[in-house]
């Protein structure tokens, strides 16, 4: 078997290193995506975070007509530098059409966005003009150069040009561009359904009393919030106990309606970690250990049935709250975007100087939570948020990035270069209200 023929469902042979490097895991997961979702036509006003399903060629120029960029007076540029007095011929407001062409020695009063009269090619800002009766006075010293303050037809979007491509994610800017073309409805891919379960006898829903030894469910909330930010339709499936038959029933209950099933917890080697067994009973596990931290135990596979031999995809994320969120960002996010039909997404990475020594281990990529800042020369520097346990979710709140210490680095010294994954592009829906706190 060659590397190229490997799929994420190939059995990992005993003795082979079962800890997959991050990039290899993502590649294998992406190879399980078979086709984009079906297409539907929706109102533009509902298009936020949806994925465009066909290229958009512009049916018109934007702006549609040559127009003024300022409130002022439209004149012939060739007259500037030659005279200081003009006769006001008329007024054209935004939304109107000039009633006549500009006569020699005349000017039109004009507002921002109003179509330019025939014969006029320059607008002089109102602030530098004086009006005496019907006479407009523009002092020579304040006259602009010919052609100033005019927006040409099609200077933003040219009729016939390809504005957007199929596979483009739509947010405010793209939705605004489509609106500027007058498109009220657009073809997009149907949203994917993602079912989310938390697992563990100790896990309680917020609002319930905690029993001794209990903790509150964090992961369902971080995962559902991230998935909504990505534009998925979420199925909140609650909390499952550590009970194999119940896990099997619960997974079977969603495998026909979900595109992807996510669980958190119960995926490691503990006595009550039944998730991999439950998935194996219904389908296959492709791989389950990654050479990253946090996020080492992550089981990826497929739930199969006679009714659906292709089945539905499954990812069992680790239970520690930082590990489940970081694996969603790094491993599952590319899959989700691909399943949604999105093309060309690539999270931004930067190189920054380590502001302190950082420990890691050869053969494993560590992702510390960090605070990225820029010094007065624009040099990027990053420090960790302090304690880095996989259960310390405040480290993600205090940070604005992940710091990657590659598998070839056992130790990072202060001043060494490290790779940084800013939350602004990697953590779905992330908004900071304290980006530079402490710097
Ligand atoms: N002997 C070993 N022990 C552990 C290993 C290992 O390789 N060998 N891996 C460690 C790593 S790394 C991680 S990460 C965890 C992941 O284990 P599981 O996915 O089986 O998760 P659990 O054991 O169920 O839970 C781990 C931790 O997270 C808490 N948790 C679980 N679900 C939630 C939730 N929804 N919200 C908040 N917190 C949750 C749970 O109470 C545990 O404290 O295993 C290590 N152990
Ligand atoms: O995924 Mo675990 O969080 O590596 O500690």
Mind explaining what this structure looks like?
The protein has 439 residues and is an alpha/beta fold. The chain has helices at residues 22-30, 172-180, 219-229, 244-254, 275-282, 321-339, 394-398, 423-426; strands at 39-43, 56-57, 67-68, 72-75, 85-92, 106-110, 122-125, 130-132, 135-137, 150-151, 162-164, 185-189, 193-199, 203-204, 215-216, 233-240, 260-264, 283-289, 292-293, 297-303, 312-317, 350-354, 358-359, 365-374, 380-384, 401-405, 411-412, 417-422. α4 (244-254) crosses α5 (275-282). The longest helix is centred in the C-terminal third of the chain and has 19 residues, at 321-339. The structure holds ligand LQZAQKY5 and molybdate ion.
List the helices and strands and how they pair.
Blueprint: H1 22-30, E1 39-43, E2 56-57, E3 67-68, E4 72-75, E5 85-92, E6 106-110, E7 122-125, E8 130-132, E9 135-137, E10 150-151, E11 162-164, H2 172-180, E12 185-189, E13 193-199, E14 203-204, E15 215-216, H3 219-229, E16 233-240, H4 244-254, E17 260-264, H5 275-282, E18 283-289, E19 292-293, E20 297-303, E21 312-317, H6 321-339, E22 350-354, E23 358-359, E24 365-374, E25 380-384, H7 394-398, E26 401-405, E27 411-412, E28 417-422, H8 423-426
Parallel strand pairs: 5-6, 13-16, 13-17, 14-15, 17-21, 19-24, 22-25
Antiparallel strand pairs: 1-12, 2-11, 3-10, 4-6, 4-7, 5-9, 8-9, 18-20, 20-21, 22-28, 23-27, 24-25, 24-26, 26-28
Helix pairs in contact: 1-6, 3-6, 4-5
The chain binds ligand LQZAQKY5 and molybdate ion.
